């Protein structure tokens, strides 16, 4: 078959890209100078670029290709559904087989009585839905003053106006007038950077208690919900201290506020269970899902809600929905993806076999002289770069200077490993083999060596 995407020289594609294509979270002029790396095909855990390089994808695309690239079953399910019914909506009392079956399957997989699904096409949309869901829930229960939603600094919940407000990315809030009213942020449980002299245990409790303090400050009767990722992803894979979530659970129960677990990354096997909530031991009222739901083959997301939330909302008309809520082709592909994850035992393998293997190898990166800590849950992990391990010191240079340098070395070594500030993160396809894990760690180590040399040569290896 003809390579549709590889028919023009790389330089020409880069020039066209720079001329017409605006990229998300990218400095446009800088990219224009440099030229984008152009990915042409992929298989398993490997990408191929327009120059023919084979690159190990340590990020599963953007935390989403859980099943790996190149699964013909997903292509076939899309083709079948496109022929049969490419689109119909789910508004105005209509439905269709893919949406029905996917909702049923998600209700089976989701813990507790999370039995109802409201579909969207992305995580951002689903979190926008959640803002309206939780406020409408309290309005319908006769407590309309409960509007406040508490979130965390450095959380990522999406990039729309609503979800970007929920998120705690200060750079995002700085552009375009975010956050919307009645969204409040508390500090994140990032012990390495912010824990000071405290033990991890005490720090976890202290950060959880900030939720209680915020609830009391706002007045418990005004608080609708708390939203958090079980393990923060885009914030740098921040694995909370073990003491954190039990204390948060106590607090949300005590004050009767809704808990939204944003499972967009943690869901569908990433942490070694179907959902991150199971891994960290929480019982949310709503879970946000997207990304791994379809392994990124088509855009789909949603909110999985408890019977209580569904029955309260169902008591009236919910004036909300997206044209593509429950899109039949996306739903069919998601269903097939869930079938493969289940029948091939991929989630179990992450929990019992490849996850523990990756953990052992990944944690050995902490022995590198530029690495302070290595933290990993299932198949999402991060390392903190530092010029001085003993002091858990940050670099004197702007946050992200050394991280960026390290990411560039990874790219040059044909490994996709992202940086968030000066943390390097991985989130590979869940189908990664032990041999591929060995390759990932070897390339990461080599890139760290090279980045450290480069940092030293450029006077960047200095503590703040
Ligand atoms: C990616 C992400 C989102 C946003 O999903 P989009 O599909 O990009 O809109 C929301 N929450 C979390 C935790 C994410 O990682």
UniProtKB/TrEMBL annotation:
CDD domains: OAT_like
A Pfam family reported for this protein in Swiss-Prot or TrEMBL: Aminotran_3
Keywords associated with the record: Aminotransferase, Pyridoxal phosphate, Transferase
Xref: InterPro entries: Aminotrans_3 (IPR005814), Aminotrans_3_PPA_site (IPR049704), PyrdxlP-dep_Trfase (IPR015424), PyrdxlP-dep_Trfase_major (IPR015421), PyrdxlP-dep_Trfase_small (IPR015422)
Domain of life from the UniProt record: Bacteria
Any one GO molecular function term: transaminase activity
Cofactors demanded by this protein: pyridoxal 5'-phosphate
Assigned protein family: Belongs to the class-III pyridoxal-phosphate-dependent aminotransferase family.
Record PANTHER family: AMINOTRANSFERASE (PTHR43094), AMINOTRANSFERASE CLASS-III (PTHR43094:SF1)
Name recorded for this polypeptide: Putrescine aminotransferase
